[in-house]
Amino acid sequence: MNKTAIITGASRGIGRACAIELSKYFEHIVINSCTHKKDLEDTKKEIESNGVDCLAIAGDIADYHFVSSMMKTATDTFPNIDLLVNNAGISYIGLLSDMTIQEWNQIINTNLTSVFNCCNQIIPHMLHRKSGHIINISSMWGISGASCEVAYSASKGGVNAFTKALAKELAPSSIRVNALACGAIDTQMNTCFDKKELEAFCETIPACRFGTPQEIANAVIHLYNSPSYLTGEVIKIDGGYL
Predict the structure, then answer these.
(1) pTM of the predicted model, to two decimals?
(2) Are 73 and 55 in contact (CB under 8 A)?
(3) CA-based torsion, 99, 105, 106, 109: positive or negative
């Protein structure tokens, strides 16, 4: 059927796991990352080793003009876009009073504006086919908020509201929009914490451990294959934390 999936932030962690897992079910994969270009190429090579076509495009998806160019390249190469996974994101740990406006804007633009950019550019292609699924990788902090992560929490709360609203807008066109609100996942984003801090946080999780990127990738597959009536949901996958 020549199905195509686009995954942002696919060089490492959750994005990489999603891209590799999706390559087992899709004929074409498009991956993106702003940084870690070598890791992005390594992801591309692993996908291609499975006999799947892969297009890797490096650039900042917080930049609307770059996203416009990226999506044109993607749709020119693989016309039928079936799935968009908005995964790219960054964090900031610290007091809000210590945060600069530049740091605030970077969090909001990378985590939230990028979702608008990608959806805005890909929706017309999905509308033309009256088919498609958008899955946004969010966070449990977008539901409950986290101390010293105000900007990150705000950006993910925005993603959750964006998901619910866009789902209502696109449901009449048979396009689904859902989000996964991830809990603590074992990725490079946690390297800012030392071992004792990570162990202390782990003790507060009912599942007694961090989740894995592969578990999120598996959840993306399950959500993509879920009934077409399931849309507008923000599904927690947090080991029972919330």
Answers:
(1) 0.96
(2) yes
(3) positive
Tell me the two tokens of residue 196: 């004792």
CA 150 from chain center: how many Å? 19
Q: What angle do CA 165, 171, 176 make, to 5 degrees?
A: 85
For residue 44, give every residue at least 6 positions away whose Cβ sits within 8 Å of its Cβ, in sequence order, or none: 31, 54, 56
Say whether 101 sits in a helix, a strand or coil: helix
Q: What tens digit of pLDDT does each residue of 30-76 get?
A: 999 998 899 999 999 999 998 999 999 999 999 999 999 999 999 99
Paired with 132 in beta bridges are 175
Q: Rounded to whole angstroms, how far apart are CA atoms 190 and 207?
A: 18
- The residues that are catalytic are 152
Whether 190 and 184 have beta carbons less than 8 Å apart is answered as yes
- The count of other CB atoms within 10 Å of the CB of residue 119 is 20
Give the Cα separation of 30 and 35 in Å (integer).
16
Confirm if 54 and 77 have CB atoms less than 8 A apart.
no
